[in-house]
Amino acid sequence: MPKVKTKYVCSECGYTAAKWLGKCPDCGSWNTLNEEVEAAADVPPLKQKRASGAGAPALPIGDIPDEAASRTGTGINELDRVLGGGVVEGSMVLVGGDPGIGKSTLLTQLSANVSRMGETVLYVSGEESARQIKLRANRLGAEKTGFYVLSENDLSIIEARMQEISPRVMIVDSIQTMYRTDIASAPGSVSQVRECASRIMYLAKLSACAVFLVGHVTKDGSIAGPRVLEHMVDAVLYFEGDRSSQYRILRAVKNRFGSVNELGMFEMTGSGMKEVANASELLLSERAHDASGCVVMCAMEGTRPLLTDVQALVTPTVFGNPRRMTQGIDLGRLFMLLAVIEKRAAITLYNQDVYINVAGGLTLDEPASDLAVCAAAASSARDICLPPDWAVMGEVGLAGELRAITHADRRLNECVRMGFKHVILPKANTRSLKAPEGLDVHGADTLFDAFKILGMYRPKAAAK
Ligand code: TYD
Ligand code: MG
Question: Is residue 47 part of a domain?
Answer without folding.
Answer: no
